[in-house]
Design brief:
By secondary structure, the protein is an alpha+beta fold. The chain has helices at residues 2-12, 19-27, 32-35, 46-54, 94-113, 166-172, 182-201, 203-211, 216-222, 232-239, 245-249, 254-268, 283-303, 321-331; strands at residues 66-71, 75-80, 116-122, 130-138, 177-179, 213-215, 227-229, 272-278, 306-309, 337-345. It folds into two domains: 2-15 and 154-345, 3-Layer(aba) Sandwich (NADH Oxidase); 34-151 and 352-361, NADH Oxidase (3-Layer(aba) Sandwich). Helix content is 43%, strand content 16%.
């Protein structure tokens, strides 16, 4: 809160909201419309029922890069929305395919909770073609992880010093490789900070993020994707015209420097990491990595452990090449591809992120 107030003072030069109205303003700033998908409505169609949970899957920059085509009475075809790309930070679409894999796994799990088996046929044959087909058949047994879908959120806060107990680490070993050694954790912390700094100090990658920032209730409700900034103080600056594109792009601005210090402090407050790797790096590998990621998220949710992706060092653009090589040297010396790097620890209760309603992601009705 201290740095946020400094940010307000530096940019605004004074009080933005009258004291008498500040509490009321802040109390009404939750973007309820954008968060409504986290309370799925019941659907008679088992495909829509499962898909209403699948749209809650984690994905890069919250781009929600999925489109769904309903076929006949029992099939769904999943496509990648090519208008939701990240050309600067994800030029090869690897991260987007990981997000699509998380979507597929969430759909399968949610279908099982409805008593249906969503049989997947992966179709990652080309970037313009469909990603997968799913046929729905009755008779499945619910996967226990499905019970945690609505409580799964990325925990982007500082974590405590509390460490995983051996039994807890053992329970997670089936879902990811864990980095528990303190010396190696320290090296990865520095890697994540340098990688984030590179992304922020590379104008075109910073602009990609700035263009996707949704600041305040109105912007988030209108565009429930991208990078949400729900802070009422920042919304007040936005509404008064004091927080625009130029300010957000100016990394030397004192307010932005204060925010960056907070972010680096969060990265420092990381006791463990989780890593997901694949032997090769084709589209099927990326989808499988996303499916594994979703199961890791749900298992940690069950256990009360926080997870936060910090995969900037894995991004494939020229300025990141050195950190990319170091990440693979540290995390996949056997020559595999590191698909995900995630902070792991105990933190405060996380909050849900906005989502487009299912109906906006359907290509058709049957």
């Amino acid at each position: 809160m201290t740095n946020r107030r400094k940010f307000l003072k530096i940019i605004g030069g004074g009080t933005i909201i009258a004291a008498a109205g500040a509490a009321g303003f802040m109390a009404t700033r939750t973007p309820q419309k954008a968060l409504a998908p986290w309370q799925p409505i019941p659907y008679e169609d088992p495909r829509k029922a499962a898909l209403s949970y699948a749209i809650l899957a984690p994905n890069p920059h919250n781009r929600q890069p999925w489109l769904i085509e309903l076929i006949d009475e029992d099939r769904a075809r999943i496509h990648r929305d090519t208008e939701r790309e990240l050309p600067e930070t994800d030029p090869n679409h690897r991260q987007l395919y990981i997000g699509l894999g998380a979507f597929l796994e969430t759909m399968v799990l949610a279908a099982s909770a409805q008593g249906f088996n969503a049989k997947l046929t992966l179709l990652p044959e080309g970037d313009e073609g469909p990603v997968a087909d799913a046929s729905f058949e009755a008779g499945a047994k619910a996967d226990p992880l499905a019970a945690h879908i609505l409580n799964r959120h990325s925990n982007k806060e500082p974590y405590s010093d509390r460490r995983l107990q051996p039994s807890e680490a053992s329970a997670l070993n089936d879902y990811a490789s864990l980095v528990l050694d303190e010396a190696k954790v320290a090296r990865i912390r520095e890697l994540t900070k340098r990688a984030f700094e590179i992304e922020v100090k590379t104008p075109r990658t910073l602009k990609e993020s700035v263009d996707l920032m949704r600041i305040g209730k109105a912007e988030i409700n209108s565009n429930p994707d991208g990078i949400e900034l729900r802070d009422p103080m920042l919304e007040a600056l936005r509404l008064t015209g004091l927080l625009g594109q130029d300010t957000l792009m100016n990394i030397d601005h004192p307010g932005n420097k204060a925010q960056l210090r907070d972010y680096y402090a969060m990265l420092d407050a990381t006791p463990h990491y989780a890593v997901i790797t694949t032997r090769t790096n084709n589209r099927r590998d990326q989808l499988d990595a996303g499916r594994q990621l979703m199961r890791l998220y749900l298992k940690t949710t069950e256990m009360g452990v926080g997870v936060h992706p910090v995969s900037q060092a894995l991004q494939e653009y020229p300025e990141m090449a050195g950190e990319y090589a170091l990440a693979h040297e540290l995390l996949a010396p056997q020559g595999h591809t590191v698909q995900m790097l995630l902070r792991l620890g105990y933190g405060p209760e996380p909050i849900p992120t906005p989502r487009w309603p299912l109906e906006t992601r359907l290509l058709n009705e049957v």
